[in-house]
Amino acid sequence: MAEKKRTYVEDIDRSLYDFRNEDAAADRKNEGLTPEIVREISERKNEPDWMLQHRLTSLEVYNSMPIPDWGPSIEGLDMDHIVTYVKPDTDQQSDWESVPDNIKDTFDRLGIPSAEREYLAGVGAQYDSELVYHSMQDSAAQMGIVYSGIEEALEGEYADLIRQKFMTLIPPTDHKFAALHGAVWSGGSFVYVPKGVKLDYPLQSYFRLNAKGAGQFEHTLIIVEDDADLHFIEGCSAPKYNVANLHAGAVELFVGKRAHLRYSTIENWSKNMYNLNTKRARCDEEGSIEWISGSFGSHVGYLYPMSILAGRKSQSSFTGITFAGRGQNLDTGCKVVLGAPDTSASVETKGISKDGGIQTFRSSVVATPKAAGSRCTVSCQSLMLDDRSRSDTIPAMDIRCKSVDIGHEATIGRIGDDKVFYLMSRGISEEEARTMIVNGFAEPISKELPLEYAVEMNNLIKLEMEGAIG
Amino acid sequence: MTSNPLLSCRGLSASVDQKPILFDIDLDIPQGQVHVLMGPNGAGKSTLGHVIMGDPVYDVTGGEVLFDGRNITDLSPDKRSRLGLFLSFQAPVEIPGVPLSSFLRAAIEGREGMKMKNKEFKKRIAELADELDMDKSYLNRELGVGFSGGEKKKVEMLQLLLLQPKLAILDETDSGLDVDALSVVSRGMELYRERCDGTLLIITHNTRILEHLQVDEVHVMVQGHMVAQGPASLIDRIDANGFEEYENELAAQQASAK
């Protein structure tokens, strides 16, 4: 795979993400949320009755739950004015030529079709509330791998399996936005990797929210059976509007015995987005989950991918970076439950704040009484680029087992003037010097990303650093 | 002394955190010469090197720095570098996550006469690494991270030879360099002199690295003041007698000024 030609992401400017299309929506649900709207969404999707019931129950839970009072303010998010369902003016296609030009153009500009040709085994592309494209290479299909829209999968061979698993890792009662998701979810991907099947190339889903003042609530459900292996990539972006947009997706990952799943995300929502996403993985015996997570966009973000290590010797590693610039309050981190003997988990995060941005690392490590012999290390480093910005670390640990080994280290620092001077004394401008230092700081994360994303991340950092001087 | 030295400090005074640290320094270095700056610990030798390079930690409170016919007193360090000034650091920094080769590439980027393709660039730095007895694997390692003192020195010399500045200030540590590292520094200086008739200002205590060089002039600093200058023979005198006579002289001058 290393020899393969990689897509090259040219120096980007924000306009790459900021362009917006005229509302291509064929159907746009009214703002606000009522049982009628929920019924209508369900009806339009021709869903089984259990799903409609699930939606209605979730709506009740949503209405009964308070909004979280412990993180960044979400006052700017007026749920009565968030459009929960926007259907693009097309049905799902399996070749790009059939996707309407304006929508295809969006994904072209984001480089998705070319990436698909060059290094992906399959691609799903969601535009507003619905998938507009889904395709997978024949070779992967022949291995028995299923990669499709989750809604079509509700009617197919795996319908029962989905019913068994759907929103069991993230029940609607988990928090208010999980309940909201349960009520109005739309789109997203279903992946099934059969026992012993190892896919060498990643699958990628890309989520684009184009509609103004809307929410995106896609559901991703991935089942990796025993001894199987998968790398899944999730990308997201949106143009900027001056009204709030909401992303409250859910990702549920089931990792079988000795199976391995790598889940990579680069989130670059526009800075009017409230990203209240929930992601959770459950690992059986000796199964392992690897999270790679880059958070760059959004106005407010709450994001804590969670690993439930349910089987003996199961493993989790979390590698994340968060960059909070002007007007951003990003509360990110992860959760780990050591729920079986001899499990192990590592958490390594980097946080950068600049221009008044607020970046908070929040983690929760729980060791249950069954966790004997388990260990977990948490390391988070933060870099504040000026005096107006803020970085915090809030680690929580709940240890209910004597024989576990838990470690935490956190550092918060600034860019050393001596380093900037050294680089400048070699002819490198101040802006470039600072960018270089920040990129270096982020390097342990970027090296974990697929090359295209690493380049994109470096470009995002460069973009954020521009005009940082003076 | 020629009428137009390559580097000139005229009445240069500087302070750090509003505390005066350099007083009315005069220094002239003509093109092609080798000058040595000596003085006891804390005399301000390194400070002078940093102020000439434009370290923003220091405020220039008086005087000016002229380089190659230009007043550079207000220029940022990167501009000074691109005019052909170089400072080898006593304690080079570590920049985690930035490979040495990428840093070197950025350092030559856009410099006149240094346009090279990536292949050519890689060949060039590999050759220089060979000449300095440096393991080429260092080129792919993070700048300075986990490098020994000697390895850091090699990297400084490699930059000197890659950038080929008009004038290099070498701020040498008083101690901590083993024999190997000393010989690398010596070799680097010789190659620099051979290849581009380089001009040097060497800040040192250790006269061993001067053995193979023809020193044109020696300057002596004490407590932020330039107190003496003279021919290479001054080195032997200082080796024998130390700086005491200069310290006493300065104290006497200051007493009479009061």
What does this structure look like?
The complex is a heterodimer of chains A (470) and B (258). Chain A is an alpha/beta fold and 470 residues long. Chain A folds into 2 domains: 15-303, no CATH class; 417-470, no CATH class. In chain A, 24% of the residues lie in helices and 35% in strands. Chain A has 12 helices and 25 strands. In chain A, a hairpin with a 2-residue loop joins strand 3 (122-127) and strand 4. The model of chain A is unreliable at 1-13 (pLDDT under 50). Chain B is an alpha/beta fold and 258 residues long. Chain B has one domain (7-257): 3-Layer(aba) Sandwich (Rossmann fold). Helix content of chain B is 37%, strand content 24%. Chain B has 8 helices and 10 strands. Chain B has helices spanning 45-53, 77-83, 100-108, 118-131, 149-163, 179-196, 233-241, 244-257, and strands spanning 7-16, 19-29, 34-38, 59-67, 70-71, 85-88, 167-171, 199-203, 217-222, 225-230. In chain B, the strands form 2 sheets. A 6-stranded mixed β-sheet of chain B has the order 6-7-8-3-9-10, sandwiched between helices. In chain B, a hairpin with a 2-residue loop joins strand 9 and strand 10. In chain B, helix 4 packs across helix 5 (149-163) and helix 5 runs parallel beside helix 6 (179-196). The radius of gyration of chain B is 18 Å and the shape is globular. Chain B starts with 6 loop residues before the first strand and ends with a helix. At the A-B interface, helix 10 and helix 11 of A face helix 2 and helix 3 of B.
